[in-house]
Amino acid sequence: MIRRLAGLSPAQLFLVVLGVTVAIGALAVSVSALGNVGMLIASAALLAALAIVAQWLWQARQPTDWDNTFTEAAAPRGVDSRISRLAGDVREAGTGAPVASARLHATLSSLATERLRSRGDGTLTDGAAVLGPDLAAYLAAPPTTRLTAAQLAAFTTTLEELS
Hints:
The chain is mainly alpha-helical. The protein folds into 2 domains: 60 residues; 81 residues, no CATH class. Helices cover 71% and strands 0% of the residues. The protein contains 8 helices and no strands. The radius of gyration is 38 Å and the shape is rod-shaped.
């Protein structure tokens, strides 16, 4: 029954609903025992029928989109706190601050260890040939060793190429 109704045009649907409403209204009015209750039932049926017709006409014109595939919004550039902390460490390490130099050394060391592990080259001492002599020497040096911008750029490029 519902499939047949779904196949009707909007005008035909309106006529079907109007016919059902008239039939319910005629039944409610013609049975004298119902009295005021019959008018209430007829009015409720008319409102329900009009609501159904409105909904059918709306969906015939614009099908409802039930797709709920949401995507995560990409965080704006520079919002990541790790990047902000690293940028601050780089600035402070350039001024010679030993704490920032130690944090920068620890960050580069952990990145190098992770890249070597993902390649299967083992630890920092095993992967010294892969890291290159300059980066291996920096990682073996004390954490407070001062790092220039050119060295940092070269070390970052080396670590990026390892992946």
